Amino acid sequence: MRVTGTLQREAWLRTEIPPVERVVPGVWSIPVPIPGSPLRYVLSYLIEHASGFVLVDPGWNAPVSWQALTEGLAACSVPLSAVTAVLVTHVHPDHHGLSDAVRGQSGAWIGMHEHEDAQLARFARPDWNDSTAHYMRWCGSPEEHIRWMTADGYGGAAAAMARADRLLAHGDLVDVPGVRLRAVWTPGHSPGHLCFHDETHDLLLTGDHVLPRITPNISASHPDSDPLADYLESLKELRKTAAKEVLPAHEYRFAGLDARLDDLRDHHIERLEEAAVIVGSAPGRHTAWQVARRVTWSRQWSQLSAVQHQAALGEVVAHLRHLQSLGTVTCATVSGVGLWQSLPRSA
Questions:
Q1: Which is one GO molecular function term here (predicted)?
Q2: Which residues contact 183 (CB under 8 A, 6 or more apart)?
């Protein structure tokens, strides 16, 4: 892997926001701050077409973020009114939070995958918090953690984000003239995550699916899902693009997609092996929370915030669920709690 966004990487190392940059003629990156987040910013991308501009992932909904986005557009000499389409890789608030504001100011349409639009509908359901609490109890989460996560109102905030005007499916060309921008469905980090292959400029916009330094969180959101299988399969799908340069939503641009795909695959293989060892290391059955506390994270479990605990828990469930699909572990629900144990190896 070779870093191509050198100014972005230098800014990352200095813990600063990088500059607005022209990637190639007709394509710009605009960093939009995420207040209070260790990710610092999302990289929004502006792509020119024959009758205006496409904006990909406008960013977090906060005054400082809106200011950065509008000033970034001005630095590109592009008025907000020239934006005709907003494309959303996925509906996490750091990517989709400002989409409605951009639509309101420009009249642009908003496009996303149907599974992302369906997620927004689920967040709006009145029983969202109750179902989330039920799932966290199934994972073995302490009541204090459940109260903290459900009191924050994430579902309500996410439900307030804009629904889709147009749905984009795998392989669709975005309906804008003069540029070939193809949607690539890459589930895993989110069920309807889309990458966008700019075939005109040979660029791949990867959202959170492929990042140059960190691995995206792959979380199971209910007991029966297997998002890790989806993620590993969609890594294979991206190899078909053979794009010259990768434009991620965080950190910095790079070249050498296949090498990074190998790294991400290998990381998850190692995490699967670690989870299997933890489940098999002691007699009895384990909750997902108990397994998560013993997994090796970037910091000690006690140093992680509640939000980070939840992300770690979701990732552990995803890996346990995939191990279950491989016949390595099994899970039984007892009194509303999922209990995991190893299956004996066949002779």
A1: hydrolase activity
A2: 113, 168, 169, 170, 171, 172, 173, 174, 194, 195, 196
Distance of alpha carbon 316 from alpha carbon 207, whole angstroms: 22
Answer for the pair 191, 116: CB distance below 8 angstroms, yes or no.
Answer: yes
Neighbours of 69 (CB within 10 A): 25
Q: Which domains does the chain have, with CATH numbers?
A: 2-125+158-265 (3.60.15.10)
Q: Which long-range contacts (CB under 8 A, 24 or more apart) does 255-258 make?
A: 255/1, 255/2, 255/4, 256/1, 256/2, 257/204, 257/210
The pLDDT assigned to 329 comes to 96
Neighbour order of strands in the sheet with 27-33: 21-24, 27-33, 41-49, 52-56, 83-87, 109-112, 166-167
Return the SS3 of 15: coil
pLDDT 10s digits, 304-340: 999 999 999 999 999 999 999 999 999 999 999 999 9
Through-space distance between the first and last CA atoms of the chain, rounded to whole angstroms: 41
CB crowding 100-139: b at 16 or more within 10 Å, else e = bbbbeebebebbbbebbbbbbeebeeeebbeebbebbbbb
Structure token digits, residue 139: 């994972």
Pick the more confident residue, 223 or 159: 223
**Which residues share a beta bridge with 197?**
182, 204
Q: What is the pTM of this model?
A: 0.94
Contacts 24+ apart (CB under 8 A), 341-345: 341/279, 341/284, 341/285, 341/286, 342/276, 342/279, 342/280
Helix axes 306-325, 143-151, angle to 10 degrees: 110
